[in-house]
Amino acid sequence: MRSTRPTSSTKLAKSKLARWALLPIATAATIILAGCTQAQTIGFLPENSVGATNHTERITALWVNSWIVLLAVGVVTWALIIWAAIVYRRRKGQTGLPVQLRYNMPIEIFYTVVPFILVLGFFAFTARDQAAIEQPTADPDVTIEVFGKRWAWDFNYLGDVDDDTDDHYYAGIQGQFGPDGQIDVDKLPTLYLPVGKTVEIRIESRDVIHSFWIVDFLYKKDMIPAKTNYMYFTPLKEGTYYGKCAELCGEYHSKMLFNVEVVSPEEYEAAVNALPEGRIPATYNVNQNLPGNGAPEGEHE
User: Domain map of the chain by residue range?
Assistant: First the structure.
């Protein structure tokens, strides 16, 4: 009678298979243990974004948790691929094609239902966080009107809605190269924000589609001609931040940069009051045939 006891070669094959099966687990453990640095714990987002506004923590959590879920899905997928490649590999002496399977209903249901659940989950959490970020502030402490234009920025610091004389403005120019061939940061338009105060940004375009993006604030908003968009946030950390246009808008798009200075309320008031009084209106927009654009004052007489 033929013995059914496993041979030494069978034991060796199983031992090798076990070592291969441990590879995905070891890889996952290595990645998790490596996630102890500051850059990795925030998903390689800008480190200066930590605590920058009242929204950055929420955005970072959504980003990092999404990657954790996707990494888990990737590890399971890689493990199944490796397992199938090892278990169903061609053995010595085997010829021809293996048995071909056309349908496997449980597996097909599995790889249809699981992605569907993941998509619903990502949508639900994203919609929840976006609704919170987009929630308008009823009575903001500061209202600033930002115009994007090729290829710079205009800032209107709006005072009392019933008193236009309290408005101040800054008319920016595009980035200029310094003697070293690099953009001179000191000559870029500067947007001042008061720390700890609720801010409303009214976002508009003078010509084509732009996008208002303060990089470390982890949020951007499109600037559409003839449409006013809004951003609401509270800066929580003083410092210098950098902004740019995030929508390709023409030849000098890369020079459409600006600085952001988050300062104390007292410093904010002093910086704004040092600017010229008044407001740069929408009548300077290039597309004068858009709805709501009338002739500049003095030109209709």
Answer: 11-88+103-134, 142-283
Q: What is the pLDDT along the chain (301 residues), one digit of tens a residue?
A: 444 455 555 555 555 555 555 666 666 656 665 556 777 788 889 999 999 999 999 999 999 999 999 999 999 999 989 998 998 888 888 888 888 777 888 888 988 999 999 999 999 999 999 999 999 999 999 999 999 999 999 999 998 765 666 899 999 999 999 888 899 999 999 999 999 999 999 999 999 999 999 999 999 999 999 899 999 999 999 999 999 999 999 999 999 999 999 999 999 999 999 999 999 998 888 876 666 555 555 444 4
Task: Say which CATH superfamily domain 142-283 falls into.
Answer: Cupredoxins -  blue copper proteins (2.60.40.420)
Cα–Cα distance between 30 and 37 in angstroms, integer?
13
Give bridge partners of residue 144 from the DSSP assignment: 157, 201
